[in-house]
Amino acid sequence: MEFQDVVRTRRMHRKFTAEPVPAQAVDRITRNAVRAPSAGFSQGWAFVVLEAPEDRDRFWAASTPDDSERDMSAWLDGMRTAPVIVLALASKAAYLRRYAEKDKGWEDLDEARWPVPFWHVDVGMASLLMLQTAVDEGLGACFFGVSPREVPAVRAELGIPEEFEITGVVAVGHPADGGAKGSPTRRRRKPLDEVVHRGGW
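The structure corresponding to this sequence follows.
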């Protein structure tokens, strides 16, 4: 698929068919993820891939709140059909350690030097590469987060080390009709001239 077609057709899919995702597609999705930019080549990321039904069930049981303020049933019913779940994790410590090395010039692990948390920025870029690779493989995908309240349960269930935070989750599969509607069905895409400012604001 041409790159522009990948960009143009990428969207968040929230329901999937029962057709399995080929192993080579999963491998390509994760292999492309680690080609993302990484500040200082820190590579402070990790990816937990859940393909077995019992592993996916463990994730959904741990990540689903018992008393959500919103009715998430339609979203969950669709998302639980995804045959592949990839948790995208970030290690802040890996970045702080990397920038305390001699070639970077900082001698301590002071987080205050960072204008934004690049560990999450980099993992976000890796996640976008996963979404785009899924499209190029003829698949659908959706990026979503884990509620802070449910993070401890997910971390414990999947054995995620304390050093790593969950930036987000990518669900992958063959798209199916239906599923919860996304915000683009209710909101317009902003015109380019509203968001691109040339030569200054």
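Helices lie at 3-9, 23-33, 53-63, 73-79, 92-98, 118-136, 151-158, 192-195.
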